[in-house]
Design a protein that fits this description.
With 518 residues, the chain is an alpha+beta fold. Helix content is 39%, strand content 17%. The strands form four sheets. Strands 4, 7, 8, 9, 12 and 13 form a six-stranded antiparallel sheet that branches. Strands 1, 2, 3 and 14 form a four-stranded antiparallel sheet that branches. α2 crosses α13. It is globular and about 75 Å long. About 5% of the residues have low confidence.
Length: 518
């Protein structure tokens, strides 16, 4: 292919790349303004005039879809695994652009769609392995009782919502938001009725009827302590099951995988897969099939009872001397996994559902920002919006709340030091991990990443040293050089190439799936 052909091929795919870069321009360096015309001009010029354009694409392929990759400078050594002798050394000065590009690895789709997709795919594999086995988990887990549970937050005030209910035919139908026959004014005179039928995705969803009535302070404190509420709930569930097992002469334990989702009203709720495992006394750290009496009915009943009885208060605060109550909301959804009948969900469906939410953050509320500081918080803590009031509550409570002394902190392990609210104001108070699991539920994200890295390293070594008889290792010594692509044109080229590669991969998967169904 000639350089002109390269340029024409590049130009045909660049417009989609411009759209992607423009959508995420808030994540780019402030000094790099998005100018589609000049970016395309630079990209076409590089593809048409650079003799090593193919090498540049290969060099950037591992970070090709990343919005803001990390640039590393240094050298890599090929070392004999048997003797430790350095066979050859290559410095980044000898590579295209004089650096190595490494994907940023951000899990948030609003920040970097490509890296978030990798995180989503890894989470999908992790969740699925805990349901059907594989990747070091025995396949017998497919027969264990397993519940898909949604834990919700309590109400902090009425909000607009897309209500659904099942009709007589079993089909879900949209309903009016908050219908009332008579006016329902709040203390501030706002009528809290809404007869509209809202659809998913509407901007009004999650917004309070009255901003002044809504308890923003309580909500951000709940967000901050939701991880502690989850920990206490799981500990009490484990203790309850342990007591039941002791009473019936059965050895059982609990495993789970959990993903947090930020609702449109700006509060986290949790989707979890909770699995019952047996205990083999000869191998207590293994995963055994539970006794037949430890079934789904037992698991669901224990979870429901524990959720209803788990609550605590936050530490005293000048604005709330008695502290805020932290407990679960009334809406608790518990469903069995694996059967494909109405009301029950399948393994692949729930794995995909959890993986999707692992890449989300506070964007559902309309708020998106990096970590806030005294210089930037005023831009977001606006009192005329719901998200703005939540940010303001985090900053205000965090400024007036004092840290505990060490002795008092020891007595209140796990309870909130209010200064943390400022650190997590950009997440509306939620500072926990969006994706967590118990130790024995499944494999780990680290193991999946290491397997992918080892595969790439072996592929590179095989390509570079075909015919070599000595086993070698690749050892790198790199330092941080910069963040982002050198030009917007390079960003367009790399993202367009990565998009084509993903499309090719998708088509191959579809062809394989079709052939398996024949």
């Amino acid at each position: 292919m000639t350089s002109t052909d390269d340029a024409l091929d590049v130009l045909s795919g660049l417009l989609g790349g411009v759209e992607v870069i423009s959508e995420h321009k808030h994540t780019l360096d402030p000094g790099k303004r998005v100018n589609p015309a000049s970016a395309i001009e630079h990209a076409v010029a590089r593809a048409a005039s650079t003799a090593d354009y193919g090498k540049w694409l290969d060099h950037t392929a591992s970070a090709g879809g990343c919005i803001r990759p990390i640039q590393l400078r240094g050298e890599s050594h090929i070392v004999s695994e048997r003797t430790g002798r350095i066979i050859s050394t290559r410095h980044t000065d000898q590579m295209p652009d004089g650096v190595i590009y490494k994907a940023c690895g951000n899990r948030r789709a609003a920040v970097c769609p490509s890296c978030a997709e990798t995180y989503r795919a890894d989470t999908y594999q992790l969740v699925l392995a805990g349901l059907r086995g594989g990747k070091g988990i025995p396949e017998t887990v497919a027969q264990h009782p397993c519940a898909f549970v949604t834990f919700t937050a309590p109400s902090f005030g009425p909000v607009h919502s897309a209500r659904k209910a099942r009709g007589h035919d079993g089909q879900l139908r949209n309903q009016a938001c908050r219908p009332r026959r008579k006016p329902d004014p709040c203390p501030h005179g706002v009528d809290q009725r809404c007869h509209q039928t809202h659809r998913d995705g509407e901007r009004i969803l999650g917004t309070p009827f009255c901003l002044d009535c809504y308890d923003h302070n309580h909500q951000v404190v709940w967000n901050a302590l939701s991880g502690e509420l989850w920990r206490r709930t799981m500990e009490r569930t484990k203790d309850t099951l342990k007591r039941w097992g002791k009473k019936h002469g059965v050895q059982i334990k609990l495993s789970y995988g959990k993903v947090a989702e930020m609702q449109a009203r700006g509060v986290a709720h949790f989707h979890a897969l909770v699995r019952l495992d047996g205990i083999d006394l000869l191998e207590p750290h293994g995963i055994a099939t539970p006794h037949i009496t430890a079934d789904y009915t037992l698991l669901a009943a224990v979870i429901r009872r524990v959720v209803e009885g788990t609550q605590f208060r936050s530490l005293p605060h000048p604005d709330k001397p008695e502290g805020w109550v932290v407990d679960w909301g009334n809406q608790l959804d518990i469903r069995p996994v694996r059967q494909s009948v109405d009301g029950v969900i399948t393994e692949t469906a729930v794995a995909g559902y959890l993986a999707k939410y692992a890449t989300k953050a506070a964007e559902a509320t309309g708020h998106s920002s990096a970590r806030l500081t005294n210089a930037t918080v005023r831009r977001y803590a606006t009192l005329d919006t719901h998200a703005g009031r939540l940010v303001d509550a985090c900053w205000r409570l965090g400024r007036t709340g004092s840290d505990l002394d060490p002795e008092e902190a020891a007595k209140n392990s796990g309870r909130l030091s209010y200064r943390r609210l400022q650190r997590w104001a950009h997440m509306l108070g939620f500072g926990g991990h969006f994706s967590t699991k118990s130790r024995q539920y499944s494999t780990t994200l680290k193991a999946l990443r290491e397997a992918r890295s080892n595969w790439r390293r072996e592929r590179h070594r095989t390509a570079e040293h075909t015919g070599a008889t000595e086993t070698t290792l690749i050892v790198g010594n790199f330092t941080y050089a910069d963040t982002g692509w050198r030009t917007m044109g390079d960003a367009l080229l790399a993202n367009t190439s990565a998009a084509k590669a993903r499309e090719h991969q998708r088509l191959v998967k579809d062809l394989i799936a079709e052939s398996n169904n024949l």
